[in-house]
Request: fold
Amino acid sequence: MTIPEPRFDPSAEAGRATDGILADTLHGTSRGVVVDSPPGAGKSTLVVRAALELAAAGRPLMVVAQTNAQVDDLVLRLAEKEPGLEVGRLHSSDSDAYDKALDDLANVRKSAKPGELTGLPVVLSTSAKWAHVKNVEPWAHAIVDEAYQMRSDSLLAVAGLFERALFVGDPGQLDPFSVVGAEQWAGLSYDPSASAVSTLLAHNPELPQHRLPVSWRLPASAAPLVSDAFYPYTPFRSGTGPGDRKLSFSVASDGSGPDRVLDEAAESGWGLLELPARTTPRTDPEAVGAVALVVRRLLDRGGAAVSERSETPAPLTPDRVAVGTAHRDQAAAVRAALARLGVTGVTVDTANRLQGREYDVTVVLHPLSGRPDATAFHLETGRLCVLASRHRHACIVVCRAGVADLLDEHPSTEPVRLGAAVSFPDGWEANHAVLSHLAEHRVPWRP
Amino acid sequence: MSLISALARMEAVESGRAQPLATVRHRHVSARPLVLVPLTTAGEAGAPLGALVGTDAEAPRLLVVTQPRDRDLRFSFLADLAEEVLPYVDSFTDVVEAAERSEVDPETGKKVKVEVELCADAPQLIVPSRAGIEYVRLLGRSTRFRRTAEQDPETPFPAPPRVPLLGRWLTHYGDRALVPGSSLLLAATDLLNRHWATGQSSLEDQHLGALLAWIDPRDGESGPEGALRAEVGRDERGQLLCPPAGPATDPAFDNRLLAPAIERYDRARLALGAAEDGEAADAGLGELHRAEREVRRLVASQLKPTWDAVWRALGLLRELPVGARVEDRWTRDRWSFTGHRDRVVAGEPPQPRRDDVIAAASKLANRERAQGQLEAQEALDDPLVLAARRLAGEAFAAEVAEVAMAYTEKNRPRPLLTVRTEDRPHLAEKAKVFRSLDGKPQAAEFVRYEEDGSLVLRLLDRMGRSKEPAAGSVPEKGERISWTLFEHEQRVGPKLPEPEDTPWTHGGPPAPGSAGGTPRTDAVELPDAVTPEDVL
Amino acid sequence: MSASLDSGLPRPSQTTTLRQRLGELRGPGTAPRALDARALAALAANPGCRRRALLDGAGVDKAALASRLGSPAPFGQSQFAIMRGNSFEAKVKADGGRELLRLLGVEEPGAVSVPDLAAAGPQGRTARTALALREATAAGTWTLLDHPLVALEVAGSPVYLEPDAVVVSPDGRWTVVEIKSFPMIDGAADASKVGAAARQSAVYVLALERTAAVTEGATVAHSVLLVCPKDFSNVPTASVVDVRKQRSVTRRQLARLIRIEEIADALPEGTTFDVEGCSSAELTEAVESVPHAYAPECLAACELAFHCRARAREAGAVETLGRAVRGELGGLTTVDAVLAAARGEAGDPEDPAVAALRRARAMRQEALDRASAPSEEAGACR
Reply:
């Protein structure tokens, strides 16, 4: 007897997950709640909502994020949602310590001294700044954002500031790292170089763990690949169905490689523009040129996106497009190439800086394209995951042929530390998985 | 590998000789280092076979464990090693200078300066290779929990008196070797590899003999020829011409020479034990001595070439002029040494098996700071290291084309410099850059690019208190200055909680009496269980 | 590219012809060598090397071959280590397997059966192992298989593998046991050695999964038991190592291997690696007819590494300086080409790699010149 699978209702699933998280956070007995959030699953929305509800319940709240940009972003979102809420922004004493946009918000108080922010219902700062806060009355509650990108030792430095906490993060993005060897502590539950969440759960295995099950960002074409390749043991689904999003162009293809790969990506959500195999320098002029040309054509062809957000086609403007690279010099080269083609307003950045951001279409220079070698840096799962999961409609990867062979020459021979938690998946394996999927959307380069 | 060092390696391939990777020496080399060349028994952790040790290149002390399975012989080896190492260490503990350290006053919670002792110099331990450093750590671990008869009259196999103390010092040195830029315990291969590029890979560079063949070749021999001879050359008996730098021995040596010699020693011991009369006993004793001498001779034959190689390496390093900021790092090493001296004197127990939560986090923070500092200092000390940073866009050399005075609203000087450079720094808007002014960093911020590609920088600090900048604090037109995008000094990290304040996220405060987190002054870890299987 | 590993060993007819062909390559009357720990490490370290793939696939004695080529492999084992290793393994397996089960966390196993696995030839031993596994799974008691032999298809040819032990639990779960002689000190061990052991065990797990697929009620644990001496004693201690990652990597590597047949077909007619029957010159020629992919990592894993290194150095390949060297060299693959480009004697200045090399050389030269000119002020930054 077969039972028909109940129809997957993403809103209901996501709503149930959020309700459970808020119930545990506001009314649970555990000191901590952990939430795994895959790309685009509404992490920021959850953080803002939890913050507002905690504030409404009269619980003094501190919010810990990892970068100043993340903190400022949360402040802006809070103010947008609840302009009347008094918010404290604790910042460093450097010049330009926070986004000047905060100066326009009436109820946001900014200070480098925690004492000047006492009594505010919500105070936000980076983990680095919180670590220097001493001799204060602990907060009743904390929200720790991007907790998987936070190191265990950073959590150690701030955990004394709060009684209870909600930890939110994406386990699939770039892991925290240390510039020196930390092998001697590998396998210890409190390995200072491990992620904050792994230490937290090693010491508090009974904490409730939740997962946001639906990615609202990734289209139906991308969620299965990203989920399988990067979250093999914690799958998620897309919030939209196969036909819910459409990308179309008003100008027909001219038959060139860039146009054909755009059509392929508009149709299937993925496109691989493959240049002839060649080992090249990092700033491979041809590949960089191809990336720029794809972006130029994307804008020239009058791209328009239909999605659940708007039924009428929304024009694909430069601010809805991003280019992702592995290295800074590649990003600089792409920016220069775009400038030569007269393109402005398109975001070009490295994976590190694209974390947490969202666009309609992304163009990615594959981290291994043209490389003569594949180092651990290039194989890191998080880097590829970030690059492959920023888009709402389509992702176009520009790459030299031969990466699969390159991977074969650079086998995964990682050392193994006894007792250390195994992080999944393996970078080598994930790279192969993504490549073999992209191969189905391959368009050879032809200018 | 940076492009500059890859290029140096290729130049080495072409010339058949190592090429410089540094123009100054980046590590402290003591006037009186203690060299230790250890060998271990294959297949068993921490079963020493022998060592050459000493401060005089011409007069090493040879220590040999004639039968590595014999616990008593192992202990006497360790006792002898302690007899060499500890007096050397002690010779540094009493020569002190006055220094200041800031401490938090427990009464007021304020920072106050306290006068403390700082050892004027510190012992330096040199081993042949990285495996040697690992072995020092292993010896430290295997000995620091041993109990002496004095500590514990009941202990079944008491260790000789000074062995646990030796273990504590070796542990401290092994731990300190993990701090980037520290020079308390160094491997000769690391020293050489920091300063020269060979025409082989970094894996092959771990072979001390091969490395020296590239850097300091014999007459008429090219680097690759000499290196190959060192790696695989064997005599007519199948023995390596250049024995491995240890602590592992060559299996061919173990199987063909050492094993028969040890067997002979075992037989002689048995025969002596079975001797029934004086004559047989005399003969047995003679044979035992001969057998023992043979094992010693064999072990020495494996150690001596490495001993000489280590001193050769030290000689090569001493020929390089020392980097200006090496002294600063050595001072930190002296603090580290003094600190451990004080812990030993205060009667604190040996270092625990594993760091507790707070110790682990603070060590990692220290090492990261040391790494940042080392990278900055090496670049500031050495134009060749700086060149790699310039090539990576993390620094630039520029000529001052124009200086225009400007002021803040509060009338503080903020001169604008227009500088020209051929380098391509990765400058973001308002990026901070630094130059070294009288050994201290002076900051500027990047303002804009000019039409002709030159950069405009705004000088930010170190110009004195008055409206007019102090003399010499503002660069002049025509001056050529190296700017870095990285900071020259590392910020001090946040203070971590005390062990008793360990937060719940990290397991909470340690339970009284438990290992790991307990305050160290009242916890002594149990020694390793000794079992009958403790020997082969 | 994403093809999964072929299930089951190749069809008999296919096997026979390939087996014949490999037999010819090995030389008449030479038994194939099992894929031992070192060969597995070499496979993991350099899966893309055709020379290694063919020689291992054919079961050629690479150590003997290397000696005949004039570059004997530097690997040897000290008799002290062998003695110690053997006595340790015996100790672990003593007491009818109870000690091993205790390490697995089973204090009261009841009766432990240790079946005799002796049989003639590798095929016989594999069949005997499969039978013992089936019986043990059906029996529902604890069973210890001491040195079982399992087969796995690698690059289209069957290879034999011998794990130290496999434990079958009453619920039909098979766990690979790997016994190593490096110590676990305070619960930690040399990570590169543990990594090698994990990769080795993952191959065993893959091979066992084949057999388990045709054995009712059987599952293969994706964690293996690594047994090592504790601290400085030879008292055994153990750690459970999750090898899911290594297993998935190895599975994909095996699926991507160039088939041995394909490599063999590209050889000139009559090529053989018969160590007994061929002259050194003939062997050298035979070896040179298969391309290698030398990298310094080979030195620790492959018997032929010194031979291949010499060839790679003669050719001026930049990989001899380490795989990482190639990172910023773009399309330049030889030392001469790199140096010529750096000096401006060759190369397209528009090529960023060439441009970077020229800047690197100029800066290096400038720094070295400054250092050797004593009149100038010392120090890089003023």
Observations:
- Chain A has a mean pLDDT of 91.
- Chain A touches chain B through 37 residues (CB under 8 Å).
